[in-house]
Amino acid sequence: MDISDFMALSPTERLKFAPIIAKYNPAGTSAFETIINIINRCGFDALRPCFKLSFLLNLANVPNSEINK
Predict the structure, then answer these.
(1) What are the pLDDT digits (tens) for 12-37?
(2) Calpha distance 29→17 (Å, rounded)
(3) Which residues, other chains included, contact 47 with Cβ-Cβ below 8 Å and sequence gap of 6+?
């Protein structure tokens, strides 16, 4: 999945997507919920570079077919 696909989702849909991201990555759902809450409140650019990169890499592990479910 690409970041543009993720950002196209509504804030509520993004938060609901946290368990799906966690399913394909070693971090837990609560970690992704925390990062998504920051993205929803302050935007993606508010994240530190290391968090941006790790979130992008974790998001890349999610197949594109998951966004259409």
Answers:
(1) 999 998 999 999 888 888 899 999 99
(2) 9
(3) 35, 38, 39, 55
